[in-house]
Amino acid sequence: MSLTLTARTATTAPTAEATAATLAPREQEALRHIASGCTYLQTARNMGLSKHTVDAYLRRIRAKLGINTTAEMTRLAVAMGL
Predict the structure, then answer these.
(1) Of 12, 44, 52, 64, which is least packed with CB atoms within 10 Å of its CB?
(2) What sign does the dihedral 61-34-36-48 (CA atoms) show?
(3) In the structure, what pLDDT confidence band is assigned to residue 26 with cuts at 50, 70 and 90?
(4) CA-to-CA distance for 34 and 36, rounded, in angstroms?
(5) Triad 61, 63, 66: Cα angle to 5°
(6) Are 61 and 53 in contact (CB under 8 A)?
(7) 3-state DSSP percent of the chain in helix, strand and coil, to 5
(8) Could you report the per-residue pLDDT of 37-55, keeping only the tens digit for each?
């Protein structure tokens, strides 16, 4: 049995301009709240949504942009000027 290793290519971070065009306005708003330090529940209350809806927005953001952590989302929000 042989193992083959594939080289992982480094992915480039999405640019702020490309990201802004990719995200819906409510996704951008949720991202802004999370990046400012709000919890999911605080974000939900500020936006008039359930915390499950906020979670869905943030999952969509992660999927669209290929990011995995809140820290990456926060860095992206800062780069976008949110």
Answers:
(1) 12
(2) positive
(3) very high
(4) 5
(5) 100
(6) no
(7) 65, 0, 35
(8) 999 999 999 999 999 999 9
**Two tokens at 55?**
């979670």
CB burial readout 18-36, b (16+ within 10 A) else e? ebeeebeeebbbbbbbbbe
Cα–Cα distance measured from residue 82 to residue 19, given in angstroms and rounded to the nearest whole number: 12
d(CA 56, CA 52): 6
Whether pTM exceeds 0.85: no
